[in-house]
Every structure is written in structure tokens, then in C-alpha cells.
Amino acid sequence: MLRPTRMEVSLRAVRHNLDQIRSYVGGRAQVMGVVKANAYGLGARRVVEALRAQGVVRFAVATPDEAVQLREWGVGEPVLVLGQCLPSAAGEMVAMDVTCAVGSLELARALSAEAERQGRQVKVHIKVDTGMGRIGFLPGELEAAMDQILSMRHLDVEGIFTHFATADEARLDHAEEQLRRFGDALDRMRCRGVRFRLRHACNSAATIRMPHGHLDAVRPGIILYGMRPSPLCPMPLNLEVPFEVNTAVAAVRELPPMWGISYGMRYVTRGNERIAVLPIGYRDGYARALSGKAQVLIRGRRFPVVGTICMDQCMVDVTDCPSVQVGDPVVLLGRQGDQAITPEEFASWLNTIVYEVPGMFSERVPRVYV
Ligand code: PLP
Hints:
The structure is a single chain. This protein is of the alpha/beta class. It is 28% helix and 24% strand. The protein is built from eleven helices and 21 strands. Strands 1, 11, 12, 15, 16, 17, 18, 19, 20 and 21 form a ten-stranded mixed β-sheet that branches. Strands 2-10-9-8-7-6-5-4-3 form a nine-stranded parallel β-sheet. A two-stranded antiparallel sheet has the order 13-14. Helix 1 packs across helix 3. The model has no long low-confidence stretch (mean pLDDT 98). The site of pyridoxal-5'-phosphate has 11 residues, from helix 9.
């Protein structure tokens, strides 16, 4: 790698976060490794490897393609696709022994027909929309749907799950109401003699705040990656952020007063200024919208990004620090000395949530595992 721009990922920190989650949850509920969206941007292949080595025996992804990818990497453990698969993906899902979330009869029928055609059984998890308003059977639809699903002999209905809409908000009443609806649905199923081997509901925020909802498994994503689901969510776990984004100073320039910096000349030097050029830009995911907002760490100090961030480069005002020179390490996200740019601060510059942060760095930023 000739360019120093990279995301450093500490698999040790991911394993540490897993240990924290496990000791909080206790032995009763299984921890499903949520590795969707390329493990939130950290790189699913190495993250999955690390989690498997630590004894995680079940994974969840968002799309059928992500599940196929895991199989191609040799992951033999159960993989659940959390999102809604199209019926046209059924053949591949059956062939790859992937578990689909089933929230519609069309998908159930397609999976069953494909499993019959391939002479196999396929595992499914029933999705119940208890108040997220995204996918799943409504509680009132569940019994009739289950009557049909249970008659499909090639489906192995292993699990049932729901997803909370507000577990990371200040008030938990809606999440509690969702859990109550889920419990009612399970009771009604039990009365009809239907039992599920794996009942699950909790994302990260609910794993922390609703231990009575842990059931048979929890599905933490964001806390595995060391971030709080929201600033409102209490954090009893001692999490470590397992990633940093780094580069190095590519050039240092002494510019005269009134010299425009970058496209649109939106920043103009006030006096003689020292401007450092960094080899990272919006094609790397260092969003143009960070222009004039972001700060970086060099020599343990904070410096502002000035002027418009370009596709491949951006500029930083280092006038205050004459010692900054070419090759100095630069932290765009992470720690240097006693300074830190946290995912929360980074997200605040973009008016977004931490979930978006690691994944916004594009494939051009190599993930380096340390
Ligand atoms: N379960 C489902 C169905 C999800 O969609 C997600 C992510 O959005 C998760 C679990 C993990 O959520 P979190 O990252 O908040 O733990």
C-alpha cells in the first residue's frame, strides 16, 4: 500500500466487546453475531473469523447475498437473513442452507417449493411485526399464517423473532408493548401446541435495557463494534471502539494571505498560513459534507479541515504547529495522545448516527487488522 490512508481494525477489541456482552447476558441466551453490511463496515470476513474462534455459533446478515458470501468463505454455522428475501432468491437460499426471515406467505411458499424440488428441508425464522412497521406478520395474522406454514412439510420452522423500533429512545414504553405483543403471540402459539426452538427480539439497545426480553438469543450489532446505540442508551458495558481511520501528511505548504483553498475557494487564508494536504477525500467516504466541520489529530493536537473536501484529498490548517511535517501520522477517527475523535463526534459533524460512521469509508480505504 503506497498511500497511508487506512482503517485499522482491532479484532481483539471486537472479541473484548463480545466477552462484555456475553457476561452481561449470562449463559441463558445465545449471542448471535450480527455481521450484516460487511460487519458494519469493519470487514465481515475477518470479523466472522474472530467471532467463530471465540465460539459464536450463529450469524445474522441483512441480505441473501451477504449470506451467500459467508458460505463462500467457508462459514458452516447457521446464517439468518434478517431482511425480506424476494421469492426469487429461494433456490439459492435452500441450496446454501441459509435461514430466511419469513414474514410473508409468498416467501414461505417459494422456499417450501424450492426445498421440495431440491429434496431438502430449509430452516426458517418467522418474523412478527409487533410495532416496527417494516416486515413480518402482524400479530393478528400470525395464527392463520402459521396454519399454512406448518403444513409446508419442507420448511423447518426453527425460530420466531421480532424487532424493536424504539429500544434506543428515552422512553421504553413502545418497546415494552412490542415485547408484550410478542409474548402474547408466543402464548397463543403454545396453546395450539406450536413451539419454537429459538425465540429472539433484542438488538443492542434492548439487550442492555430489557434483560427480561433476552429469550433464547440476542442480536447485538452496534455494541459488538464498540459503539452506543444512541446517546440516550445507558452503557453498563465497558466497550472498546475497534476501528480507527488514519492517514499521513502528504504535503505542507506555506501560503500567503488571501489565498483560496480548494474548489469554490470557500476558505481563504487570513494571513500567512501553513496548510497540510491529506491523501483522503470523499471517494474514500470522507464526506464532502465534513468540509469546514471536521477536525483531525496530528502530533496529539486537533486541527480543522479547511476548504472543500475533494474527491481524493483535503486540506488542514496547521499554522499553529510549525513542527508538522510530511509523513506525520494523522488520525481522522480514533485516538492520538490524549485526544480522541469518537464515532459520536464524527457522526455529529454529519448530523447522523454512529451506525453510519465505519461503513461510510469506502472500499478504497483498506481495512488493516491489528
Ligand atoms: N436485528 C435486526 C432485525 C436488525 O435489523 C438489526 C440492525 O439494524 C439488529 C438486530 C442489530 O441492531 P443493533 O446494531 O442496534 O444492535
